[in-house]
Amino acid sequence: MSQVTKRIVQELHDEPHLEGRRITVRFLKEQIEERGLDPRTVADRHDLDVADVYRALTYYHDHPEEMRTIERRRRSAIEAHAHLATDPDDVRD
């Protein structure tokens, strides 16, 4: 087993995450590639080893079909439960 997959596990909602943490591979990818944060910054903010951040990114890109499936499931769940969300403009003090 490679070092990359040794630290990435799927115990939490069937989504790959860092072993012993609730931080998902998808979350770390979003922070770096979509929000433009530096991997060191993300590691520091979440008390992670920067190598684990890079492991998560590697896992994401080494498993594109798995990650697309996870994102589709996530979008479907959000859409299925959208009726339960409250619009902040509808909330009054």
TrEMBL record:
It comes from the Archaea. InterPro entries: DUF433 (IPR007367), Homeodomain-like_sf (IPR009057), WH-like_DNA-bd_sf (IPR036388). It holds the Pfam family DUF433. This is DUF433 domain-containing protein.
